[in-house]
Every structure is written in structure tokens, then in C-alpha cells.
Design brief:
heterodimer, A: about 120 residues, mainly beta, four-stranded antiparallel sheet, 11 strands, about 0% helix, globular, B: about 110 residues, six-stranded mixed sheet, five-stranded antiparallel sheet
Chain lengths: ~120, ~110
């Protein structure tokens, strides 16, 4: 078990471009979460999947953001028409939820800079 | 939604000192986790502790759910303990997502 991995680790893009991030969860985990973290703040929830179903999206997730988890394995987060305010660390976490008990394991994050 | 407040916001210690970090939350919770974010940004889960007390080496945590707070104790601190400590909670009866506090930034000097 290699833990949660994310790719790329860093991304610099120009305003208006589209970007896509990938997250590979721990293999037996059924839940996958995306968070966004800006400087000096804690991570903020964006969306989560149980297997391939996207169960909740935050109001932070504008229509420029879309996430998928085909076949309940890896997930992608796409940001269209990036804006400077999208610059942040994007974190992925996975878990194997049993009832109410859950421990989330985080990947190393993708740091996005929009110029 | 649930509010999470952590204190102190910043803490500077000498190596070997002990410390207590506090997390207050505004409603009942199903889930409470403590995380350590290292200087490279990696979040490491320390404890899943919606109630009770747990210990892992030099770290221990206590959550008093009825009074809506949790404490993280670090004993005999080391420079590698430096980083930001986050408390995150899942509100009971609410959405199944973690809400994070703003963290406590710990600096341990040699």
C-alpha cells in the first residue's frame, strides 16, 4: 500500500486555461474527498465520492469545477477557465468508512498557481 | 454549519517542552480527527477521537464530547514536531464531511 498519490505535484498555468488533477486513493478505500487549502487556512471541503457516485458538492465548487471518479477508482478534478483566485493547494483524501467511524488519509497535494 | 476554533494560533517551544493544543466545536460531532501538516504540506492523521482518550507515543488526545472540546498533548517536543496541527470534525446529523479549524502553528526550536 503506497498511500494516496496525486499528480501533478505542482502546476503553473495562465488565467483562462483549463487544468486537470488526478488522485489515486488507497486501493481498498470506497470514499474519496477533494479539499482546497489556501495560505494560513485549514482545508475546505469541495466534494466527495462513495465508490463512483458523487454524493455532495460544496457551494465553493462553481460550475467551472468538475470532478469524476470513473469505476470508483482514481478521481480527476478539472478547473475550466482558471482564475487567479483558484490558486491554492488541492488535496485529495481517501477512507474506508464503516458506519460513523472514519479516518481520512491525505495525499501530498497539487499546488496550483494561476498567473 | 458547525464552527471549529483552535487555540493558540501560534506556539513556540524549546525542544523537550510539553504543550497542549485545544479545539472547540459548536455542535455535536460524529467524527473528530487531529492532523499534523508538515512544512512540505503533507497532512498526517494523528488520531480519530470523537470521544475519550488515546495515546500514541509522545502524543495523546482527549475529547470531551459533552463539553464540545478536544485537547492534543505533545510531550518532550522535538524539532520534527514543528508544523501546523489541525482539528477536523464531522457534525452529527449533518453532511458527511470534515470541517477543519484554522490550525495551531507549532515551532520547536533546538
Amino acid at each position: 500500500d503506497t498511500g494516496v498519490s496525486q499528480d501533478p505535484r505542482h502546476k503553473i498555468t495562465k488565467r483562462g486555461q483549463n487544468v486537470t488533477f488526478r488522485c489515486d486513493p488507497i486501493s481498498e478505500h470506497n470514499r474519496l474527498y477533494w479539499y482546497r487549502q489556501t495560505l494560513g487556512q485549514g482545508p475546505e471541503f469541495l466534494t466527495y465520492f462513495q465508490n463512483e457516485a458523487q454524493l455532495e458538492k460544496s457551494r465553493l465548487l462553481s460550475d467551472r469545477f468538475s470532478a469524476e471518479r470513473p469505476k470508483g477508482s482514481f478521481s480527476t478534478l478539472e478547473i475550466q477557465r482558471t482564475e487567479q483566485g483558484d490558486s491554492a493547494m488541492y488535496l485529495c483524501a481517501s477512507s474506508s468508512r464503516a458506519g460513523l467511524e472514519e479516518t481520512q488519509y491525505f495525499g501530498p497535494g497539487t499546488r496550483l498557481l494561476v498567473l | 454549519g458547525i464552527q471549529v476554533e483552535q487555540s493558540p494560533p501560534d506556539l513556540i517551544l524549546q525542544e523537550g517542552a510539553n504543550s497542549t493544543l485545544r479545539c472547540n466545536f459548536s455542535d455535536s460531532v460524529n467524527n473528530l480527527q487531529w492532523f499534523h501538516q508538515n512544512p512540505w504540506g503533507q497532512l498526517i492523521n494523528l488520531f480519530y477521537i470523537p470521544s475519550g482518550t488515546k495515546q500514541n507515543g509522545r502524543l495523546s488526545a482527549t475529547t470531551v464530547a459533552t463539553e464540545r472540546y478536544s485537547l492534543l498533548y505533545i510531550s518532550s517536543s522535538q524539532t520534527t514536531d514543528s508544523g501546523v496541527y489541525f482539528c477536523a470534525v464531522e457534525q452529527q446529523g449533518g453532511s458527511e464531511k470534515l470541517v477543519f479549524g484554522k490550525g495551531t502553528k507549532l515551532t520547536v526550536n533546538p
